[in-house]
Design goal:
171 residues, alpha+beta, Aspartate Aminotransferase, domain 1, 4 helices, 20% strand
Length: 171
């Protein structure tokens, strides 16, 4: 019986020693960090980016967009953030959303095969109306095709108006 007790005691001691031992160095064969992985492109070259708040996930989204759409979305991001001091941004449903912190999202961006869609969630209240209708009565869209000139002045005016409207969800 004494023998079993001492074996248990040794077992407990060795477990305690192992638990407090220094961690082993990471092997060179460990998988690459998630940030280094190239995001998968969904239909229309829209990047699959995990939900996240702030500039970093939106930058990751923009960096993953191939071709001419990357420059368009980068420019959209700059105009939107310049037009909404104190605005916030995030990735939701693989798309950048823009809003006012503590209030609501007023705009979303999404890549399609032949264009980039800017969705104003309460766009029916904007003047002049963004040109593309939606099945939802309050939503209006603005599409940007390859080679289109971006009217930054008009976009900024829509963004400023939209940022003052109720919008959608909580930002």
């Amino acid at each position: 019986m004494a023998r079993k007790t001492s074996k248990s005691a040794r077992s407990t001691t060795s477990t305690t020693t192992r638990a407090s031992a220094k961690p082993k160095p990471v092997s060179k064969r460990s998988p690459a960090p998630a940030a280094k992985k190239k995001p998968r492109l969904l239909s229309g070259d829209n990047p699959q980016i995990a939900k996240g708040d702030g500039d970093a996930p939106v930058r990751a989204y923009i960096a993953a967009i191939p071709g001419w759409k990357r420059d368009v979305v980068r420019r959209l991001d700059e105009v939107i953030m310049r037009a909404t001091p104190g605005g916030c941004k995030a990735i939701r449903w693989n798309s950048p959303f823009y809003g006012i912190a503590g209030q609501s999202w007023f705009l979303g961006v999404h890549c399609f095969t032949k264009y980039v869609k800017v969705a104003f969630f309460d766009g029916a209240s904007l003047r002049p109306l963004p040109p593309v209708e939606s099945k939802q009565p309050k939503v209006r869209y603005f599409h940007i095709h390859e080679g289109d000139a971006l009217d930054e002045k008009q976009l900024a005016a829509w963004v400023k108006q939209a940022s003052k409207l109720p919008g959608w969800g909580g930002a």
